[in-house]
Model the fold of this input.
Amino acid sequence: MSLKQFVPLDFDVFAGLDVDGSGISVTYLNHQGFIRSLRIPYSADNLVNYVRKHFPGQRVAFAYESGPTGYGLYDDLTRNGYFCIIACAARIPRVPGLEIKTNKRDSRKIAESLRGGQLNSIHIPSPEYRNLRHLVQLRDTYKKQITANKSRIRMLLLFEGIKLDTPEHTTPWTKSFLTTLETIPCSTVVRFKLNSLLSNIYYNKEQLLCTMRQIRPFCKENPEINHNVDLLITIPGIGFTTAVELLARIGDWRLISNARQIACFLGLVPRESSTGDTIRKGPITCAGSSRTRNKLIQGAWAAIRKDAELNDFYTRISSSGNRDYAKKKAIVGVARKLSTRVFSVLHNQKPYVIRKTVQTEPNIKTNPPQGTARNVIEQNVCFTR
Done:
C-alpha cells in the first residue's frame, strides 16, 4: 500500500505518539496550538475511542517513531481509517541544547513536526515482506554467531600459544579442521571452553540450515516474491541469498519511483556538504542495513568477472588516483550500478540480459579526467525505510 502525500492543511488535529511497551504518551495539537497531553495503555482501541469521543467529525493524523514496537499500531490505525506516519527517529527535527527528555516532551515534538509537515514516513512493508524480513534477519543472526565463535576460538588458540598447521591463504574452517580442534592437546579448562565454542558453531550451523530451509519454501509459496527472486538472480553478482535480502529490505517494488531511491536506501550515495559554487562530496552515507549493503558490494566483485560492461567501468575507475582507495571507490560504484539494475529488473519485470559487447567512448584515457569518478554515484535522493 502506498502512502498518499501528507498535507497538513488537510487535517484538523495532529497526534504525536511516544510509544513503548507499557503505554503511549499522546500530545494533541491543532492549527491554533496545544490541546492536551495524556498517557494511555498501549492499545490502538484506546486511541481510536478517545479521538472519536473528543474530536468527532475532525480529521486526525497520527505519527510515531520507528522502533521495537513495529507496525501493529500503524496497522490498527489505518484499518480504522486514520492517516498515520511512522517517522525515522534520526530524521525527526531536534532542538539543539535541550537537556530535558521525557515521553511527554517527545510526543509533543513529534506532533509539532507533524503539524509543520517536517516528517516523512518510512517504507511500510506488507505482511509478506515483513515475514520474509524476519527469516532473513534470523539467518543473518546465526551467521553472525558463527563468525563470532570462530573469532573467539582463534583468540583462544593465540592466547594459549596453540599453533595448528593450516595452509596459508585458505579458509581453515573445514570439517577436518573442526575435527582437529576437537582432539588437540590442551588443559582441562581450555578443552571445556573450546568444546563449548565448537558446540555453539555446530548449533548455529544447524539452525542456519533450518532457516534456509524455511526461506526457500516461503518464497515459492508467494508467487510475487518467487517471481522477483527469479528476476534478480539474472543480474550478475546477485544470487539467491542477496536477492532475498534485497526483497526483504526493499519490500514492494511498486513504491519505488526511481533507481536513485534504492541507492540512497542502501547507503550507496555520497555525503555532500556544498555551498555556492563549492561542491564537497565525501564517502558514502552508509544509511540503511549494513548487511544488505555489504552483500551487494560482495556481489559486485563477482559481477565484474561476468559482466564486461561492469568490468570496464571498474577498470577505468580503479586505475585513477591512489590504487587501494581507487579500487574501493570503484567497487562501491559497481555496487551502485547493481542497485540501478535491481530497479530496472523489478520495474520492468523482465530478466537482465548481459551485453556481449561493451560500447565505450573513443580515445578514453587510462586516467580519466577530474570529475569522472564523481559520476560514479548520483545525487542523494531519500528513500526512507
Q: What stands out?
A: Residues 230 and 351 are 8 Å apart (CA to CA). The chain has a mean pLDDT of 86.
